[in-house]
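TASK: fixed-backbone design
INPUT:
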């Protein structure tokens, strides 16, 4: 991130329904009114820092909005759950509802990256009234085996960084072929979003139990799709961003999503894989254009 000054946002502590402490960043706060706020939900092992540059832009432009970026349980500054079975979509959906209630957000535009977008599928089916509009970042109702295997493998590799330079090297080794659009600064931004400094060591900023869950998945058995839940987006303004080199969301799935939701807006993140960094290139302009139509 080019600017991660904590004066740019307020830190919010939220209690989940089971009492676990959750963390969120609040850009703009209650001082921004008139337009529905934006709530950003990160991917499987990612956190609120992924959205920092986009949140700054959207909370400061001519159509400024309040932007909330959430750390799911076990990620970032949210507490780790002693019961690892609660790292699941249903619990995380309830956490989102609790966060919105605590922050006095009855309705919002939601941006969901990867896992965050799966949570939005559940919310569309169970609580559609909270969704003013939805942006899905490289995720849909069908999860491709190749993409899931990729995620499982890079999350469970043995190499750990000794310093920030090595953190960048590891990310480039894992994702370099898919993210050809990234510059040196972009890779450093990604490292600062994914890793944190703990006791003088650079470590991944999530509970290792979340990555371990991926090892137990049976990739020989077809995963259930979320088409029934996707149908709940039908009357909700929807934008889908796909990384040009994504292995998790295919072109075929994207086309089927557009067929089922004729009003859907699509955007391809050129030179990016799973999942695109939303503050790069022409993606922010595409998001702003979509928001202007709501």
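OUTPUT:
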């Amino acid at each position: 991130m080019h600017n991660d000054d904590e004066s740019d946002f307020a830190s919010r502590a939220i209690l989940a329904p089971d009492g676990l402490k959750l963390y969120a960043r609040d850009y703009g706060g209650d001082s921004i009114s008139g337009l529905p706020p934006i709530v950003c939900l990160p991917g499987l092992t990612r956190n609120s820092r992924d959205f920092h540059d986009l949140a700054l832009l959207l909370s400061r432009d001519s159509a400024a909005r309040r932007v909330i970026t959430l750390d799911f349980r076990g990620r970032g500054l949210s507490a780790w759950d002693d019961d690892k079975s609660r790292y699941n979509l249903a619990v995380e959906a309830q956490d989102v509802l609790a966060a919105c209630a605590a922050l006095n957000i009855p309705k919002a535009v939601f941006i969901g990256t990867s896992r965050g977008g799966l949570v939005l599928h559940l919310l569309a089916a169970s609580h559609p009234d909270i969704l003013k509009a939805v942006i899905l970042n490289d995720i849909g109702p069908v999860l491709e085996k190749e993409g899931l295997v990729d995620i499982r493998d890079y999350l469970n590799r043995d190499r750990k960084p000794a310093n920030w330079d090595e953190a960048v090297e590891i990310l480039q080794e894992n994702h370099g072929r898919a993210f050809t659009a990234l510059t040196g600064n972009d890779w450093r931004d990604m490292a600062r979003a994914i890793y944190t400094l703990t006791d003088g060591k650079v470590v991944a900023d999530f509970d290792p139990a979340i990555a371990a869950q991926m090892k137990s998945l049976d990739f020989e058995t077809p995963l259930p799709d979320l088409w029934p839940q996707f149908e709940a987006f039908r009357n909700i303004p929807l934008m889908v961003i796909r990384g040009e080199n994504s292995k998790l969301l295919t072109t075929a799935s994207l086309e089927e999503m557009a067929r089922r939701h004729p009003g859907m807006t699509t955007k391809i993140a050129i030179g990016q894989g799973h999942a695109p960094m939303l503050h790069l290139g022409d993606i922010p302009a595409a998001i702003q254009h979509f928001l202007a139509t709501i």
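COMMENT: The domain at 6-292 is CATH 3.40.50.1820 (Rossmann fold).
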